[in-house]
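Hi all, posting the design record for the shared folder.

TITLE: backbone redesign
STEP: 1 of 1
STRUCTURE INPUT:
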């Protein structure tokens, strides 16, 4: 159980149901302080981060802007049309490659529990004449503290009212029993996809400090399928290391030996990349990281990434391996130009509308 030292609550959120649930149910002791505003807190509290301990302060504050936005995509990169909800900012899992280290190098995990008006945003999104994929894990992990806040359950019960919105719960954690126990009509389960980021166990051990193991993620996916849900998987980032080819192919073998291919809606693949400014931060925080074993260049989007010939080799191998098991699973690339999608035989991103039916 992750240790929380202190919880700050904006005074306008003290009656929020997610806040009350967390305070009542989180199983470790922590200090609670009610604050007037987050801005005052930032100016008067030391949020210095100790990378060895993980982030151990939570701030419940209201979100004053929109929750939902289109997933940001760099210039000259093919978009997959994804939308994201920004409900939690910061994460304690401690992945070596995480870009949050560059922007939020402190102990504060911010949770926005004021979901009262998110229906207005969902209604606008649902007016688009196409399938919308929506996830809530851009600035954190989707399942972070979720058992104790109930936020994902609240979102599920809202989103199932919109038939063309598919809600993806993407995580490196596996505590999903509280979500599987939600009483939903079978037809509504088609709107909900449980998804996991995937890497070989060797990479999980060295690069994803507090994440669930590979087998735990597979077992959680099996539970989701057994309860009538579809699943998805994300090989992102793929990291080149000793014997990476066999290691990643073994993960794909493990997926398809445990999960029926008709229950896997999509699989994405993305090679390691980051802003150049993140590299010295990773080297400092994780001196034994394997993320730099492959040669890096500055790509057309300004990010440090593997050279084109190596990325194409990665994608061809993994796409071919996936398609050897399933011709129906939608396979796409993350943060790559469309020409590379075509070169490695990925699906066209526009096909997603036609591959998902209700």
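Okay, here is what came back for every position:
SEQUENCE:
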């Amino acid at each position: 159980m992750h240790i929380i030292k202190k919880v700050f609550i904006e005074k306008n959120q003290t009656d929020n149901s997610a806040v009350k649930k967390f305070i009542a149910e989180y199983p470790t002791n922590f200090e609670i302080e009610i604050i007037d505003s987050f801005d005052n807190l930032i100016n008067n509290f030391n949020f210095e981060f100790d990378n060895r301990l993980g982030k151990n302060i939570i701030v419940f504050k209201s979100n004053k802007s929109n929750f939902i936005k289109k997933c940001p995509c760099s210039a000259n990169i093919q978009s997959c049309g994804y939308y994201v909800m920004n409900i939690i900012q910061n994460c304690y899992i401690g992945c070596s490659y995480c870009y949050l280290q560059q922007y939020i190098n402190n102990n504060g995990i911010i949770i926005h529990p004021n979901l009262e008006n998110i229906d207005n945003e969902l209604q606008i999104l649902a007016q688009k004449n196409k399938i919308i994929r929506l996830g809530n894990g851009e600035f954190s992990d989707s399942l972070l503290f979720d058992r104790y806040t109930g936020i994902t359950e609240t979102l599920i019960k809202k989103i199932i009212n919109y038939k063309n919105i598919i809600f993806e719960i993407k995580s490196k954690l596996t505590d999903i029993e509280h979500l599987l126990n939600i009483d939903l009509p079978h037809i509504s389960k088609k709107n909900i996809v449980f998804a996991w980021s995937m890497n070989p166990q060797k990479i999980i051990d060295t690069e994803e400090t507090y994440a669930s193991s590979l087998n735990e993620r597979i077992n959680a996916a099996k539970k989701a399928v057994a309860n009538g849900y579809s699943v998805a998987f994300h090989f992102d980032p793929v990291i080149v290391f000793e014997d990476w080819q066999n290691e990643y192919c073994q993960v794909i073998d493990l997926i398809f030996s445990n999960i029926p291919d008709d229950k896997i809606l999509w699989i994405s693949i993305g090679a390691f990349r980051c802003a150049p400014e993140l590299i010295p931060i990773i080297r400092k925080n994780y001196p034994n990281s394997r993320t730099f074993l492959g040669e890096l260049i500055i790509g057309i989007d300004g990010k440090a990434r593997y050279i084109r010939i190596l990325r194409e080799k990665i994608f061809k191998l993994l796409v071919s391996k996936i398609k050897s098991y399933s011709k129906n699973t939608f396979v796409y690339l993350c943060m790559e130009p469309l020409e590379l999608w075509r070169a490695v035989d990925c699906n066209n991103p526009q096909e997603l509308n036609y591959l998902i039916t209700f």
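COMMENT: The chain has one domain: 66-87+116-355.
Let me know if anyone wants the other runs.
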